[in-house]
Task: structure prediction
Amino acid sequence: MMPTSPSSRIVLVTGPTKSGKSEWAETLAMQSGKSVIYIATAQTNADDPEWQQRISQHRDRRPADWLTVEAPENLIETITTAPSSCCLLVDSLGTWVANLLEQDSITWAATEQNLILSLERLDNKDVIVVAEEAAWGVVPAYASGRLFRDRLGQLVRRLGAVANSVYLIAGGHVLNLSLLGSPLPTPLNEKR
Result:
């Protein structure tokens, strides 16, 4: 793992649905003291009012001075081209993975690797990534559900290995896994 520069930081905030992940990530972004760029990976859908309401709730909660960039597919480019000395808040990794689910396994492996490399090569930026824990339930009965769960789970694990801090939000509590736990070794098939 290539360390980020001393003035850069990667934070992973993970947990189940409606646990408060986004709120905790927003709190961390406000505490960074840097200008915040909120990177939204969700795609709007006028035919889905409930989805639009979820997006509006997130939008309404953010401070007015935060810049919002929609990056449903071009997350890597958005991270690498963002200005230095800022805090990027990516919400959410699961939505981004879902948006790219049609990629074949070879293309996805390259995409996943490029995301990790872009985070390892930060230029005086903080990046806070919100990610869902999608694999705490039963194995999905359909192939696309299993593919999504496996890709997101693997990516969250890889991101956790390069993050400076990892938080789990569960049961209305914030747990700093970086202080409470020990990282797993990198599997041999993932070592560079």
Remarks:
- The radius of gyration is 16 Å.
- The chain has a mean pLDDT of 89.
